[in-house]
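Suppose a colleague, Dr. K., hands you the sequence of a protein chain of 196 amino acids and asks what its three-dimensional shape might be. Before reaching for any lab equipment, you can write down a predicted structure in token form. Begin with the sequence itself:
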Amino acid sequence: MSNINNLTSKITKDAEDKKVIILSEAEDKKKNILAKKQEEASSEEKIIIEKAEREAVSRQERIISSAQLQARNEKLTSKQVIISEVFETSVEELCNISNDDFKAFVKSTILNIDISGDEKLILNAEGIKIVDETFVCEINKELGSKGKLTLSKEIANFKGGFILEKDGIEINNTFEALVNSLRDELSLEVARVLFS
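The predicted structure, expressed as tokens, is then:
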């Protein structure tokens, strides 16, 4: 019976030793799996953080770029408004010239353009107060044989200057049209003077 006890003890001891080995191997596997998973999680975390940082930088750059573009557009719009005001002020200043200067402008313009001489002179309400039939006769005398210019009864709606009309075709010498015709040519110069 002692052999049986010895055999049982040996089997129990071997089982205990095997249990310790199996538990130790299982613990090692657990540690390896956990270490591997922590390493993977750390690597994944690093990738996610790097991606988030890149996206944040990209988003920040887009926001800054958009803000700069918006600021540039607002600045450009403001400059265009100011330039428009300069040209509008120019029209207003031209409308405020003296009666003699207005007559001189009408006369010299008509004498210096190629016309048939039998056009109608169209004025606004202010121009009608300054230019009369006598003045038109003076211009006709200077035009010579083709001087058949007439003063229109029509009162036009423009700020200043005049229009010559014949057979539905108009030669627009209003201050608005004259300033507008120079606007493209002078806008850069006006901008340089104003904003330099």
